[in-house]
Specification:
The protein is mainly β. It has no helices and seven strands. About 10% of the residues are buried.
Length: about 80
Amino acid sequence: MIQSISPDSFSAIVRIELHIAGKCLPVAQAGGGQLIFDKPVSLPKGDGELVMYIDESPQRWRVFLQPESAPVRIVRASFEHIA
């Protein structure tokens, strides 16, 4: 049996991007001290900006990366919310 969706429930559209060194990279997941990408990436060591759009409303964090020397899908990072 398929459950019907109540009229007051909704699904948000979420998009996450990492802006670093003049690039904009899509991020699959962020949190818990890490960024997870769909494919392995090579990132420069340094700071970037994480932008999470929820229904096109952006939230921003300064991101401090600890990238690996080889391309990886999971990158250690710390986050600072930008008000």
